[in-house]
TrEMBL record:
It comes from the Bacteria. This is Gamma-D-glutamyl-L-lysine endopeptidase. Transmembrane segments: none annotated. Residues 122-246 form the NlpC/P60 domain. The lineage of its organism: Bacteria, Pseudomonadati, Pseudomonadota, Alphaproteobacteria, Rhodobacterales. Its EC number is 3.4.-.-. The gene is ykfC. It comes from Roseovarius mucosus. Keywords: Hydrolase, Protease, Thiol protease. InterPro entries: NLP_P60_dom, Papain-like_cys_pep_sf, PG_Endopeptidase_C40, SH3_16. The keyword Hydrolase applies. GO terms for biological process: proteolysis. SUPFAM superfamilies: Cysteine proteinases (SSF54001). Belongs to the peptidase C40 family.
Amino acid sequence: MTTPCLIALPLVDLLRGPDGPRDRQLLMGEGVTVQSIADEWAEVTAIRDGYSGFVPDSALTEGTVTHRVSARATHLYPAPDFKTRERFSLSHGARLQVLSQQGRFAETPQGYVPHAHLSSLDVLDTDPVTVAETLLGTPYLWGGNSSFGIDCSGLVQAGCLACGIACPGDSGPQERSLGAPLSESAPLQRGDLLFWRGHVAWVSDPATLLHANAHHMAVAYEPIADAIARITAQRGGPVTSRKRLKGLS
């Protein structure tokens, strides 16, 4: 029997095993189902994408969420006053329960967040690339899922989830499940995806990619032709597929 819970910490690594390597990350307020708890470790499955792993059982709580952080990042304060010392920072995509509005701040069970940095969960973005551009310059982090560090598949997932598009956590499953294939001759457009073995990138415009990559060690723009030549030269292989998400035109 599984138990639904929420992530209680601003950011927690989803580990392959207790004290094991990081596979992905989970943000505050994200939902998980708990399979088991033993020796202070919980085996969980992320509701957003079915990714399973281990987190400290202290990272779990119960509750309700109503809003998500739609800004790149925000701060949570002990009072509705930006001059007070913040309690912690929250990444884009973190989820909170808004109890009331206090001037420019939203009151949550954890404290106060600028209301301008939040969106209701029932209000979706319409352009996943615009969402991904919010994270431009974010440091590259293998397995990262936050504005403090993110990888290529994390950047794609962030854009998709903000637009209500179901999206796996890794580039391989993303290539298999996202969008419809494009022929080599089809012109690329904003919102298309290019896949390599172990890598994925958004098409920002017909000549430019936006991707989290270890070459720039950041979320960065790169000319498509340059990226293809560079990845080929680094033995990353050719583009394995070009995909177009449904409903984007």
